[in-house]
Amino acid sequence: MRTKNTLKLNKQTPTALTVKTITLAEFLAIPSVHCQRRLDHRIAGLKKRLATLEAPHLIVHIGFYTCDVDGHKKGDLVVIDGNGRQFVWRTYPGEVELPTELFASVYELSSKEDAKRIYDMYDSQDAVEKTHEKITGLYKELGFEPFTTKNLLSGRIAKLLSYGCHGRSYTDGLPPGHFKDYVTILADFETELFAIDDIGFLRSSVYNANIGAALLMAAKKHQDNPAKLGLLATAMERLRDVDQGPSNRKNGTDGITKIIQEYQTKSIFVQGFGTNSVQMPLQLDFLLYCLEKYMKNEQVKQYARPGTGSGKGSRKNIYMSYFTQ
Q: Is the pTM of this model over 0.90?
């Protein structure tokens, strides 16, 4: 039996809602909403939670397109909330308890934007979707293949992206870390992100958000220079393998060894690599300085922090103008 309800939601959100009972087979046949985040890194947890069927598992949210839109025809259905359950029930039917019927709340949609707004309301673990979950949803929207590096796969790269894009034309002069249109950043750095992922950074690697952002920036800056990209690929392999070169006071060391040493000893940044608005720009200066020295085949003898004045010996922060110099 159908019942019609009206919900008082955000002005921009469709308010017509039909609640009805559907069979599991009907639910499994409905495709996911276009902005659904990737599930790869959540499957084990989902299977554990769904092993025993509970009442909240029976409530799902579905979108119904009332007109033709890009990629959908009038009358098409999409799963807005319940995609994780749908995947597990379809893929691992013998490992979890299956429902026979579900209670589906069906929203009328006139655009993909409608679907995205309702998705943002419902499809999260705590009713407020976290940034990394939004980023994995954007992976799907942009057609990205699954990453293998853990932080890339899980979408936990917000700092890497928002600081790594600083100085790109679309950031409009915003301070570092303030541009957070992740779909724009992901589209801009797609090639570079997959290049980093191909290296296969392991748990023991010299790798974090700061280093990832520096590698992303260097790969983008030198995208048309095969020789430097080749050196950068070698640099990433050495960071992955924690491969240090010779080092002494007189001759210094290569830039990659310098990064590895700092990562391990914290001799310059005594609190280690951090991601706040003071630490990140300064530490990205250090990382980009070392990477550029390495790609020029120059030794790092002594790292001097960038100055704030214009006096003799003072230099500007490389990071702040990396894409414009």
A: no
